[in-house]
Amino acid sequence: MELLQHAFGLVTGTIIPFLVVLTLIVFIHEMGHYLAGRWCGIGITAFSVGFGPEIAGFNDRHGTRWKLCAIPLGGYVKFHGDEDAASTPDYGKLGGLTDAERSRTFLGAALWKRAVTVAAGPIANFILAIAIFSVTFATYGRQVADPVVAEVRESSAAAAAGILPGDLLVSIDGSPVRTFDDVRRYVSVRPEVPIVVTIQRDGENRDLRMVPQRTELSDQFGNKMEVGVIGIVTNEATGNFRVVEYSPLQAVGQGALQSWYIVTGTFDYLANVVTGRMKADQIGGPIRVAQASGQMATLGVAALLQLAAVLSVSIGLLNLMPVPVLDGGHLMFYAVEALRGRPVGPRTQEIAFRIGMALILMLTVFATWNDTFGRLG
After folding, report:
1. Which of 5, 115, 121, 195 is least crowded, fewest Cβ atoms below 10 Å from its Cβ?
2. Is 374 helix (H, G, I), strand (E, B) or coil?
3. What is the pTM (predicted TM-score) of this model?
4. Could you tell me what percent of the chain has a pLDDT over 90?
5. Residue 55 to residue 94: CA distance in whole angstroms
6. Residues forming a β-bridge with 213
7. Is 192 in the active site?
């Protein structure tokens, strides 16, 4: 009985939230490709959520097969003239088409139409994230605190630099600071990187130099992560905690800004990994996403949707990487085609796709290792 209860809890508490989040992100991504392809006049054979054997599906009046497949770890849109789900051209079939038929295939479409269709998937992911954040901000507002120091930790970078309780943080490295979250966001991705913090004390501005310390922190679920900290704390009285409400238009602006923070934070983290200032243990795969989905689900629908927004931005960025097989790899080929005046040869594309697939598999193995065995040394 205990085993059955554990299994039931795993399904309802982790697997179902994970599938809801992943299906939403995949559907929106593929819908971007689908809508752009339809707008560009490219025929579409199939729209699939998942891979492998079909579980359920139907054909629409345009001849597109809409289907749900057994392996819910992705999806694809198959265009006319494609050989497989990876949009590999079926050159044998293309050779027997008339000019009119070929114009409705993906390969036969104008270069700009192919580029728009490919780019629309990641763009749809960014739009989804902005939409979720916008609805959240318009509905709940945002809790903010003034960047005023209530406490300085002993032996911290801030203490060594001379920051005192009551100091108002004005800017960091010349970037204006408006809320305490601005400080945390900027500092957290700069461990061991010298920064200049401008404070206001007794009506005068002072520039203080310090180096954020690399520190391991745990979130409310016990997940550990390394971030940069300078050792300052605010509280409700000192920071004037309050909820800022936004109009629908302001909420959209805040949603776009929040999505941009995720983009820049991702690049900052990757730069820190390359330079050795942070470990690569935060790169996770399906197992970690499933775990995070279950954890966020315990906090409510709003928290789960915000996780979906973060993941949507991450997947959009990943797909824009110039790696063959990914959308960014296709766009790279189109850029080369635009410069050369002719497409990259089939043999070159085949070799590049194999290399790209190998890179994706290595990344998947690495992420799964992180998920399974935790932090690497």
Report:
1. 5
2. coil
3. 0.87
4. 49
5. 30
6. 229
7. no
